[in-house]
Write a structure and sequence with these properties.
- The chain is built from 14 helices and 2 strands, in the order αααααααααααααββα.
- It is mainly alpha-helical.
- Strands 1-2 form a two-stranded antiparallel ribbon.
- Strand 1 and strand 2 form a beta hairpin.
- The two termini are about 40 Å apart.
């Protein structure tokens, strides 16, 4: 594809001002994704803690309905593009959707009982669960440095749990069960994404279409309908606004992830997704009147060090692999992105991809791939 030239024949992409604008756009998108990832957890926790709303399945139902409506609305106005509906693919997504729905309900139920720092720490156990599944299913063992980082994270979690002044056994069981479900979900979606090559807006839509009736069924089976009907603040404008914001935050987080990956790359999104957990944990210590002691703080610190170490190892490993790939293939035009696995996260996998913070695709190619993937669908729900 030829270069874009201005009136004087200068390459627009070599224009320093143009590069600065693109870099700032990439940085802004990364900050937007990181802040939304943290904010979604705090919004959901506020519903449960401030408003004393104890019906997590109904909140999940609201989020899935909002996501379906948002996808159709944005598609209608040309903001995103959806692939043509395929009934066979839609049927194959059902198993993933069922696991996803269970993960969301467990996420929310855990967040009702567990404070935000411990919620994040317990959710970080997703990575060792994925490593275990990879070993059992594929006999795959990660590099020793990555294993060491995961062990530091895990030990930090154990220390923090031992010093938790708000220890809630059921909350811990729910959070760890959610992490196990998330691991299964990541493995299943990574396999399905590779097989079907669905862009993730389409995959997110299929997932939400299945999840909506499933979430309503769980709401009915758990008896939450009666509780919601009798909830004393159900008709208050302030509560409805908070509930709507929580429902919207799930989709906005997914869209923020999409923007971050479009304007940067999947690697940047993955690193931001890891490191935001540290910010979330520290901020959570000072929110909602959380009491903490020295042991709890030491465990949180050790867990955070492990998370940052893991993020760095994944970053270094990915950059080394990308340099070798670029030497072998060269960096060419960018193609449509699809959802694939990147260890314990779901990431974009374009057929050829540029790397580096703030480096992104040619604007013409970007406009052609409006249906390209988001880096994860884990944002729908707890955001952790």
């Amino acid at each position: 594809m030829g270069k874009s030239l201005n009136g004087s024949g200068q390459d627009l992409h070599d224009n320093p001002k143009g590069r600065d604008r693109r870099n700032w756009a990439g940085i802004s998108a990364a900050l937007f994704y990181g802040s939304m990832s943290v904010a979604s957890v705090f919004l959901n926790k506020a519903i449960f803690e401030v408003w004393r709303y104890r019906y997590p399945a109904s909140l999940v139902a609201g989020q899935t309905v909002f996501t379906v409506l948002a996808i159709f609305t944005l598609s209608r106005f040309g903001v995103i593009k959806l692939g043509k509906f395929n009934m066979d693919n839609f049927k194959r997504v059902f198993t993933v959707s069922a696991v996803f729905q269970l993960k969301l309900v467990l996420d929310m139920s855990a967040l009702v009982l567990v404070n935000i720092p411990m919620y994040g720490i317990l959710k970080s156990s997703t990575t060792p669960f994925v490593m275990l599944l990879d070993y059992v299913l594929r006999k795959r063992v990660p590099a020793m440095r990555i294993q060491a980082a995961v062990w530091v994270t895990t030990v930090g979690g154990l220390v923090a749990g031992f010093g938790d002044l708000h220890f809630e056994p059921l909350g811990y069981v729910l959070a760890l069960s959610s992490a196990a479900c998330t691991a299964c979900y990541v493995v299943l979606v990574g396999k399905l994404g590779d097989e079907l090559q669905l862009d993730s807006f389409t995959l997110l839509l299929y997932n939400s279409l299945w999840s909506t009736p499933l979430s309503f069924a769980i709401t009915i089976l758990t008896g939450e309908v009666t509780g919601v009907m009798n909830y004393p603040h159900v008709s208050e404008a302030a509560f409805l606004a908070a509930f709507t914001m929580s429902c919207a935050s799930a989709f906005v987080l997914n869209y923020a992830t999409y923007l971050c990956t479009q304007l940067n790359d999947a690697l940047t999104t993955s690193v931001v997704g890891r490191t935001k957990s540290v910010v979330q944990g520290v901020a959570g210590l000072f929110a909602f009147s959380v009491s903490w002691g020295v042991t709890n703080a030491c465990g949180l610190t050790l867990n955070s060090v492990g998370i940052c170490w893991y993020a760095w190892e994944r970053y270094a490993e990915k950059r080394r692999g990308t340099r070798l790939e670029n030497v072998r293939r060269g960096i060419g035009a960018l193609n449509e992105n699809f959802l694939t696995r990147n260890e314990s996260q779901l990431t974009l996998s374009p057929k050829k991809q540029m790397n580096g913070f703030g480096l992104h695709r040619h604007p013409t190619r970007a406009s052609e791939s409006g249906s390209s993937s988001m880096a994860s669908m884990n944002g729908l729900g707890g955001g952790g």
